[in-house]
Amino acid sequence: MKKRNALLVLWISVCVLSLNSFAQPKGGTQKIKSSLTREYIYPTRIVWQKGEIAHAGKLLEKGIGQASLNNSNIIILKNKGTDTASILLDFGKELHGSLEIITGMWPAPNNARTIRVRFGESVSETMAELGEHGSTNDHAIRDFKLMLPWLGKAQTGESGFRFVRIDLLDKDAVLQLKEVRAVSTNRDIPYLGSFKSSDERLNKIWQTGAYTVHLNMQDYLWDGIKRDRLVWVGDLHPEVSTVNTVFGYNEVVPKSLDLARNTTPLPGWMSGISTYSMWWIILHYDWYMHHGDLNYLKEQKDYLQSLLKQIVGKVQNGKEKMDGNRFLDWPSSKDTIAIHAGLQAMTIWSLEKGAELCLVMGEEATARLCKETVSKLRTVVPPHNNSKQAAALLSITGMLNPQTAFEEVLSVGGAKNFSTFYGYYMLEAMAKAGKYQEAMDIISTYWGAMLDLGATTFWEDFNMDWLQNAGRIDEMTLPGKVDIHAAYGDYCYVGHRHSFCHGWASGPTVWLSQHVLGIQLAGPGGTTFRVSPNLGNLSFAEGTYPTSLGTIYVKHTKDRKGKVVSIVKAPKGIRIVK
Predict the structure, then answer these.
(1) Model confidence over 315-338: pLDDT tens digits?
(2) Class of residue 149 by CB neighbours under 10 A (exposed 0-12, middle 13-18, buried 19+)
């Protein structure tokens, strides 16, 4: 009896194992949980429509995302002959995600309907044909045909957009739409940092920079949600600075830094650009200073030391001799004299920060090599060639007197010749010269001009010369006005290929928190800070700054005599020093 029971137990075990083998495919199933969430957003207005369309206004009403047999609240597009019914929707702000369309019950249910969808970061982009004014499907498909089912729903692929144009393509056809909504894909994370002042324009600029980077915090930290949806390491520096200022620690940063390292075996340069590998070093320094993760830093040790030695090997007689793509930013890319000055400064900056990281890890020999090389580099100060990019980097690294940099270069022409990427470092150089109000004026003029044109995120590039007679990006271009998205752009971003949501343009968000609120990191690990406000003409400024132990709160107010009175509240464990 006992033997029979034992055999029965053995038989049941074999059956269970067999069932498990059918349930689990060979090799197992990998599940990766996404850090991203989905949010449904409905259009806020109809910009334009053409042809026979009934009840179009219902598209602006919030729905339930479900087709219904009662066929209520239906929008009808009707084509007669070769006429095409078309509609252009505005979702109110730049988004990253897809489009979901819920349909009704048109006649002849066996026949699907074909539409053309065009995403746009501007109204102009949605109205262009592929190839016209740089309109492209690079990186994200934003101009395509889509089949819609009868009484169902369909969803598109993802891109960066604010505007959507829909054209019914079938001849002599009727299309019934119940809802058209955007499916926004983003990280559902709180804005721990904040900024509010007596200047509402600066407040909006701070928030726009933060939102621009938030949209680019996808699976990795991209520089653009339409183009490029890629990890470009130089672009990461302003973005990561914004992440630290607004969101605090987020796993997208180390994930992106590791991707850059893992896809760039030495002696290659990240993205083929020597300065981008230098930015990777500076980024790790900033990340360690903010978060103090020594174990993560030590994971970089072998690569970091080899990269530092590679950079040292490109220095001859105190001059940088970097190979690869010699690049600072797009507007300076034809100025070889400025690029050399910028590379000289970047080499110093990266080797100095690399030396500090090596000392933290106990790698004194590599740190000594970096410091010796920096001493040689500092004996050679290349001319800045009146480049604001070069002058800013030379000032930041102590190669050019900050007052001289401001008076001879940075102040010339005000916001003229600023750039969205290196504008951050120009602002930093102005702060070194104590020119805080002048920097706020530049922020208001340069970044504020994009807002004046209808932007809800900051652009890949912007030139003050473009403002002359420019039309808004959220309107059809009026006669006599310049279509700013179609008409301008350069290098790889001509016309509509130009990204209107580019994280490297978020520098003012960081600058305003660090220099107006005055909250600055003063020691490694993100637990020691200095608060030194600079209000300029502002009557007050207040805000928060994230740390691993909670948020620092400050409020600075001018009294009747113009003296700044400050309130500073820091969480337990955070030290505020003078």
Answers:
(1) 999 999 999 999 999 999 999 999
(2) middle
Match 């000392």 to its residue by tokens.
Answer: 359
With beta carbons less than 8 A apart as the criterion, state whether 82 and 168 touch.
no
Mean pLDDT to the nearest integer, 386-401? 98
User: CB within 8 A of 248, min separation 6: which ones?
Assistant: 192, 193, 546, 547, 548
Q: 23 falls in which pLDDT band (50, 70, 90)?
A: very low
* Class of the CATH domain delimited by 37-186: mainly beta
Residue 44 structure tokens: 């806020």
pLDDT of 452-502, one tens digit each? 999 999 999 999 999 999 999 999 999 999 999 999 999 999 999 999 999
* CATH number of the structural domain 194-460+499-558: 1.50.10.10
User: Of 259, 379, 248, 356, which is closest to residue 308 (Cα–Cα)?
Assistant: 356
> What is the maximum alpha-carbon separation in the chain?
101
Question: Nearest-CA neighbor of 393 among 329, 340, 345, 335?
Answer: 345
Say which residues have a Cβ less than 8 Å from residue 541's Cβ, sequence separation at least 6: 195, 196, 197, 198, 516, 517, 533, 535, 555, 556
Residues 175 and 94: beta-carbon distance below 8 Å: no
Give the Cα separation of 232 and 423 in Å (integer): 18
Are 23 and 51 contacting, i.e. CB atoms less than 8 angstroms apart? no
Q: Is the pLDDT of residue 2 over 70?
A: no
**Nearest CA among 408, 446, 453, 402 for reference residue 424:** 446
Sorted by where each begins, the domain ranges of the chain are 37-186, 194-460+499-558
DSSP H or E stretch at residue 53: strand 52-54
Tens of pLDDT along 352-362?
999 999 999 99
Reading the block at residue 85, the tokens are 């019914």
